[in-house]
Specification:
Number of strands: 39
Shape: globular
Keywords: Hydrolase, Protease, Serine protease
Strand content: 25-35%
CATH topology of the largest domain: Rossmann fold
Number of helices: 13
InterPro entries: AB_hydrolase_fold (IPR029058), Pept_S9A_N (IPR023302), Peptidase_S9_cat (IPR001375), Peptidase_S9A (IPR002470), Prolyl_oligopep/macrocyclase (IPR051167)
GO molecular function, one term: serine-type endopeptidase activity
CATH class of the largest domain: Alpha Beta
Protein name: Prolyl oligopeptidase
Pfam family, one: Peptidase_S9_N
Radius of gyration: 25 Å
């Protein structure tokens, strides 16, 4: 049997990394067919697919919108428009039950007109005129996008406007006739750089940013900044705040460390903050959110602290900080944003949201009236240049999304609410803490019907990149799992940001094992509490969470009855060579470094598959058009599992990008497929 621990060139399944190769796609078709046949023929699957599509397509859900000048813009998908509509309305109309929407772009109609499989990726509206937009369109949902300029007044594409071919480009307005652009600079732009180095980084993102003037070829764009090929990406932005107009460039040296510069008189002036800090310049202030301890001017500031400086004084070397937030063992800063006169801070206390407002320059804190308790609250939109207007999203596991609107002066009130998609009147939520292998308390939420004492349980986790898993309305899980008697669990394992930066940084690189120890400890705790049994415990995760599930299969198979791994990283020996993988070495480590491969190799699922271990059944899904996490990970994992005689189901959506689906129908199918697999494997006699 082949040993996959050595030279990756000996890997017999490298041919499955040929994304659109005929032989590889034949393999995909051969594996999709039995999975579809086994999982889609039941009445339960048909019900779950229909129920999921109803959630995704309903016209009664909140049309979340962002203010851009005098209009509120929204992107909307429904049954009639599966590709989506980019539309806008007035604030007055938006406050009514049925707003009058003005459709700007019908993506489905555009796809038919262009004979392209367009998927919406967003739009950048020119400020302050708000009459032009740079529109990003993806083929099949990939990260790479085509850029086109759209005239919002004429409702038409701009002839000879700013356009870019498909690439992972980075663009932004400077003024009506000038943009910043980072791209591959193909089609005759020589190397695209002044230094002769590649225009893209090893991670596949722009290394060079240029200033491009309307009416000139891209080859005439002027280079304003360049990073190194080993960087993750380089970008530029223009801050057009009246009275504080500034140009900034940034260089991400890895996923978590970056350098920020202000362009002054053609020179890049370094904003000399810690490279791992989150840096924001607003008006005359510099805000720094630390991710590691920072010793400055005789003071020591902990990781997770929010500091504010006078920006010009800071650049001149005068670095007197005002501390706006200091974390404690239970509380972390999740996010902060601005209205015209206020700073808004969203914090987590044991993974429960709290929100505070401070007046800019005064910095005294107060609560925002109208914010509900015991709910996850996030800031959706503000209008910092003109008003103290604020829109918030509030939800919990059992209460549907609620849109709160108001001002940071007077408070907020309910403006719109999504319908309830399952009966949560007899559903309760509990928070428990498991003890990990090193003694750390790991919180997790349990959501179940009150009449369910124990039974089939679905454990979800992520554990990476400082992404917090906060409570949110479980519409699809509610219908397809909780309402049917299943127990739903969210684990707040290390690698996330639930308790601030340290909750993440201790699980990077050599500390990665903590992620898997935490998740396995939650699994054990669920069984020891009597909520489920090993045979009825399933787990699910996607992307980095898909890697988590792969590790559960190969390192903790005795803890689970079945597993679902979606768009996963699996081959950690080669992940940095595939698509955007090089950008994640700050998270996982460099497998080409023997010292780092020594700890990566201990958990990398592909290298740890064994024929002599009894693995639980697993469903592995991915997307051909995922240009972030290479579909070869999932394909090779399945091939290796089959080679060693294990049970495995596989499904690859031909479209969808990293999200796995290009429209709501595909998303509903993919979701129902996973739930049907879980029901069949965890409760085989239950309808």
């Amino acid at each position: 049997m082949t040993d996959h621990r050595g030279d990756p060139d000996t890997d017999p399944y490298l041919w499955l990394e040929d994304v659109t190769g005929d032989t590889a796609l034949e393999w995909v078709a051969e594996h999709n067919a039995p999975t579809v046949a086994a999982l889609t023929g039941t009445e339960r699957f048909a019900q779950m697919q229909a129920q999921t599509l109803e959630v995704l397509d309903t016209d009664d859900r909140i049309p979340f919108a962002r203010r851009r000048g005098e209009y509120l813009y929204n992107f909307w998908r429904d049954a009639t428009h599966p590709r989506g509509l980019w539309r806008r309305t007035t604030p007055e109309s938006y406050r009514t039950e049925r707003p009058d929407w003005d459709v700007l772009i019908d993506v489905g109609a555009l796809a038919r007109e262009d004979d392209e499989n367009w998927v919406w990726k967003g739009a950048l509206v020119l400020r302050p005129q708000r009459d032009r937009a740079l529109v990003l369109l993806s083929r099949g949902g990939a990260d790479a996008s085509v850029v086109r300029e759209f005239d919002l007044t004429a409702r038409s594409w701009v002839t000879d406007g700013f356009t870019l071919p498909e690439n992972k480009s980075d663009v932004g307005w400077i003024d009506r006739d000038t943009i910043y652009v980072g791209t591959e600079f193909t089609d005759g732009e020589s190397s695209g750089t002044d230094d002769g180095k590649p225009a893209l980084t090893d991670s596949g993102y722009p290394r060079v940013v240029k200033r491009w003037t309307r009416g000139t070829p891209l080859s005439a764009a002027t280079t304003v900044f360049a990073g190194e090929v080993s960087d993750v990406a380089v970008g530029a932005t223009y801050d057009d705040t009246p009275g504080f107009e500034r140009h900034f460039v940034s260089r991400a040296v890895d996923f978590f460390n970056s350098l920020t510069y202000e362009l002054r008189d053609g020179a890049a002036v370094l904003v000399d903050t810690p490279t791992d800090a989150h840096v924001t310049v607003r008006n005359q202030w510099l805000f720094v959110l630390t991710r590691s301890e920072w010793k400055l001017e005789g003071m020591t500031y902990p990781a997770g602290a929010l500091l504010v400086f006078d920006y010009e004084d800071f650049l001149a070397g005068v670095r007197e900080a005002t501390v706006l937030f200091t974390p404690d063992p239970h509380t972390s800063l999740e996010d902060f944003t601005f209205t015209h006169d206020h700073l808004v801070m969203v914090t987590l206390y044991d993974v429960r949201t709290q929100l505070a407002v401070a007046t800019l320059g005064d910095w005294s804190l107060r609560e925002l009236p109208g914010v509900p308790a015991l709910a996850t609250v996030s800031v959706l939109d503000t209008d910092p240049d003109h008003s103290n207007e604020i829109s918030l999203l509030s939800s919990s596991f059992t209460s549907p999304p609620t849109l709160l609107y108001g001002t940071t002066d007077a408070g907020v009130e309910v403006l719109k609410q999504s319908p309830s998609f399952y009966d949560s009147s007899q559903v309760s939520v509990q928070q428990h803490f498991a003890t990990s292998d090193d003694g750390t308390a790991i919180p997790y939420f349990v959501v179940k019907r009150d009449d369910v004492e124990s039974g089939p349980t679905l454990l979800y986790g992520y554990g990476g990149f400082e992404n917090s898993q906060t409570p949110g309305y479980a519409a699809i899980a509610g219908r397809n799992w909780i309402d049917r008697g299943g127990i739903y669990v969210i684990a707040n394992i290390r690698g996330g940001g639930e308790y601030g930066p340290a909750w993440h940084t201790q699980a990077q690189k050599a500390g990665r094992h903590l992620v898997y120890e935490d998740f396995s400890s939650v699994a054990k705790d669920l069984v020891s509490r009597g909520l489920t049994t090993v045979e009825q415990l399933g787990a699910q995760g996607g992307s980095n969470g898909g890697l988590l599930i792969g590790v559960m299969l190969t390192s903790y198979p005795q803890l689970f009855g079945s597993l679902v791994s979606q768009v996963p990283l699996i081959d950690m020996r080669r992940y940095h060579l595939l698509l955007a993988g090089a950008s994640w070495m700050a998270e996982y480590g460099d497998p080409d470094d023997p010292a780092q491969w020594s700890y990566i190799s201990k958990y990398s699922p592909y290298q740890n598959i064994r024929a002599d271990v009894d693995y639980p059944p697993i469903l592995v899904t991915t997307s051909t058009r995922d240009d972030r996490v290479h579909p070869g990970h999932a394909r090779k994992f399945v091939a290796r599992l089959e080679e060693t005689g294990h049970r495995v189901r596989y499904y690859e959506n031909i479209e969808g990008g990293h999200g796995g689906a290009a429209d709501n129908k595909q998303a509903a199918f993919k979701s129902a497929l996973a739930y049907e697999f879980l029901w069949q494997t965890l409760a085989p006699g239950q309808d």
